[in-house]
Amino acid sequence: VRGTIFNELDDDKLHSVIDFSDFEERFKIGVGGPLINGTSVVDGLGSFPSKRFKRTENVSLLEHTRLRNIAISRRKIEIPVEKVISAVNSLDLKVMSLENVELLQRMVPTEQETKTYKEYVGSKKNVNLLTEEDKFLMQLGKVERISTKLVIMSYIGNFFDNIHFITPVSVKYTRYHASSIVHFGPPTPTPPPHEFQENET
């Protein structure tokens, strides 16, 4: 093209200075497509999911705040639901710490939640579509008398703390009672009714 820089370019000289073979290999038109950082652009597009194949979102039967609280508590427990259920049924505080027991007490499904899950299963809907929190609660709802068992575990776990709290009060009362006997003497026993009758006669 006259009057431009391209008019002065020598193609043969340019090819002798620049190696275009690698350039052509990287950007050639074909199945592999151009390479960027050693990765085919076509292959790289596979990492972006198509909107037509968008992953199905999970369903929750819980109220939003309840769902969030269950999610937080479940992460704190860090024990699979199968082990949780086994530990509760055997009242095993070695597997379930006292802290986890207290968390679980707040997670126990209500009657309405249990009823909702039963209706969901009864309508033959896909349980796998539920969130992990819903699945966790559904499994807890299958444990018989779970609230009672958790109360027993809490009592066992707090037993020594309760004893430690009660002992000083008990000792203090015993000492007070003993000092009263020393100061005032033992209480005078009340005679039986028949002794009063004999004295009157």
From TrEMBL:
Secretion signal, residue range per the UniProt entry: none
Domain FH2: 1-201
Gene Ontology molecular function, alphabetical: actin filament binding
Protein's organism: Timema shepardi
Coiled coil: none
Record's protein name: FH2 domain-containing protein
GO biological process: cell migration; cortical actin cytoskeleton organization; regulation of cell shape
SUPFAM superfamilies xrefs: Formin homology 2 domain (FH2 domain)
Family: Belongs to the formin homology family.
GO annotation, cellular component aspect: cytosol
PANTHER family membership: FORMIN-LIKE PROTEIN
Superkingdom field: Eukaryota
